């Protein structure tokens, strides 16, 4: 997954649509805090950081990313207004692996992202790194996401007692395992809506809910709106996107 951090809704929309149209998995949020609170269970393979309206922000952003234990080995790419030689050197010195100009050609963007993903340590195309305890929890939830997973099942899969799992979750996520399971399921549901899912019942079953009403309640608790309302809003937003945007084939 590619994580795009940009304070500009226009930038998030443009880059997200180009990459999604070419079957690249991307989550776009305003800042790292928003990702941590709502999408932090899905670890990215690559992070794109929009600094085109933030002068001299690269070093501070890289420090913030490095402060996140789970993101320390994630490749980072800067999006800048102009990627001059001096800018590229500065971003490379701060730890980024590349710089992309704001007006990058869509085809170039897709090819560049695919090439970068192929060398990123956490990419699915590379040899997996030894997982941390936090990543093992996430991976286990992902593995059983379509099932009616509960805390007892998760503890068993992790070869941990419930109390040990509770302590591990509080240590890594500052919340309990039940909340983490729910959060991941709703995150995945949101992503499926972004990719066109428009049936609430099917969506609920696909993320392991056997009771649609329980799914709707959990979705509203986390997202502040019902799945149906979220689908309508996203559909309206997508209708406003220019139709002449190039559709590329991977």
Overall number of structural domains = 2
CATH fold topology of the largest domain: Rossmann fold
Can you give the helix content as a percent range? 40-55%
Q: Which class do the helix and strand fractions yield?
A: alpha/beta
Largest sheet: 5 strands, parallel
The succession of helices and strands, N to C, reads EHEHEHEHEHHHHHHHH
What is the mean pLDDT?
81
Major sheet strand order: 2-1-3-4-5
User: How many individual β-strands?
Assistant: 5
What is the name of the CATH class of the largest domain? Alpha Beta
Question: What's the oligomerization state?
Answer: single chain
Sheet-strand content, in percent, reads: 5-15%
Gyration radius, in Å: 19 Å
Which regions have little confidence, pLDDT < 50, spanning 5+ residues? 124-128, 241-250
CATH superfamily membership of the largest domain, which one? Response regulator
- Shape summary: globular
The CATH architecture category of the largest domain equals 3-Layer(aba) Sandwich
How far apart are the first and last residues' alpha carbons, in Å? 16 Å
Task: Please give the count of helices.
Answer: 12
């Amino acid at each position: 997954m590619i994580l795009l951090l940009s304070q500009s809704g226009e930038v998030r929309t443009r880059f997200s649509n180009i990459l999604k149209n070419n079957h690249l998995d991307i989550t776009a949020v305003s800042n790292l805090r928003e990702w941590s609170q709502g999408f932090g269970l899905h670890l990215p393979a690559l992070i794109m950081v929009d600094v085109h309206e933030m002068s001299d922000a690269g070093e501070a952003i890289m420090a913030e990313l490095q402060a996140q234990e789970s993101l320390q080995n994630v490749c980072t790419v800067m999006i800048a207004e102009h990627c001059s030689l001096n800018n590229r050197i500065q971003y490379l010195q701060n730890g980024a692996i590349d710089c992309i100009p704001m007006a990058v050609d869509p085809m170039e963007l897709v090819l560049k992202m695919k090439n970068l993903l192929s060398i990123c340590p956490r990419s699915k195309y590379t040899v997996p790194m030894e997982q941390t305890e936090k990543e093992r929890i996430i991976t286990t939830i992902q593995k059983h996401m379509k099932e009616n997973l509960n805390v007892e099942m998760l503890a068993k899969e992790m070869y941990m007692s419930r109390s040990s799992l509770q302590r591990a979750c509080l240590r890594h996520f500052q919340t309990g395992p039940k909340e983490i399971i729910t959060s991941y399921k709703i995150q995945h549901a949101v992503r499926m809506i972004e990719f066109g899912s428009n049936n609430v019942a099917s969506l609920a079953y696909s993320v392991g809910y056997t009771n649609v009403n329980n799914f709707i309640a959990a979705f509203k608790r986390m997202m502040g709106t019902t799945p149906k309302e979220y689908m309508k809003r996203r559909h309206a937003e997508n209708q406003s996107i220019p139709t002449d945007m190039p559709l590329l084939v991977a």
